[in-house]
Amino acid sequence: MYCITCGHEIHSRTAVKHMEKCFIKYEAQASFGSRHRTRIDGQSMFCDYYNPVNGTYCKRLRVMCPEHFKDPKVSDTDVCGCPLVRNVFEPTGEFCRAPKKSCLKHYQWEKLRRAEIDMERVRQWLRLDELVEQERNIRLAMASRAGVLGLMLHSTYNHEVMERITKANENGKLKEGS
C-alpha cells in the first residue's frame, strides 16, 4: 500500500506507524501560534512553548504536539491496555493484553484518547466563556434598564395623562377668555 501523506510504498503491517511518523513530520512544518500565553488556571492542555524567533506560543494540544513534547519510551513489559469494544461503540469491559510494542491495532490509543478528552475540555471552556459573556450582557442590560438616563433618552407618551392636561389647558384658556 501507499502512504497517504508522502506517497511512498509501505508494508501494510507498519502502515499505521509510518503514517503517524509521516504526519508528525508534515505537522511540524505548520505553525499554530499565538502571541498570548494560555491563561487557564491549573490546566496545561496547550503546549505553550515560546518560540523567540516568531515571538509566539505554540497552541497545539500538549499531548499532540510533535515538536515540543516527545512520547515516553515504551518498555518491553508495558501492556497495551486499550479498552476493547464490540460493534464499534459497546464496551466489553475487557482490555487488550498484547505487549504495547507489538500491538499495531491500538497504536498510540492513549495519546488519541487524551487528545479527545482535552478537546472536550476546550469545548467546555469555550462554552463557559460564551455563557459568561451572555451573563455580562444581561447584567449590563438589567443595570441600565431602570436608569434615569434611559428614561430621559427614550420618550414615552401617556395618552390619558396628556389628554387630561390638554383639557385642563383648554378649560383654563376658555375661562381666561370669558
Automatic annotation (TrEMBL):
Gene Ontology terms: cellular component: Set1C/COMPASS complex
All residue ranges annotated as the CpG binding protein C-terminal domain in the record: 1-152
Gene Ontology BP annotations: positive regulation of DNA-templated transcription
Keywords: DNA-binding, Metal-binding, Nucleus, Transcription, Transcription regulation, Zinc, Zinc-finger
Transmembrane segments: none
InterPro entries hit by this protein: CpG-bd_C (IPR022056), Spp1/CFP1 (IPR037869)
Chief site of localization: nucleus
UniProt-recorded Gene Ontology molecular function terms: DNA binding; zinc ion binding
Pfam families attached to this UniProt entry: CpG_bind_C
Superkingdom to which the source organism belongs: Eukaryota
Compartments where located: Nucleus
Record bears the keyword Cell membrane: no
Name of the molecule in the record: CXXC-type zinc finger protein 1
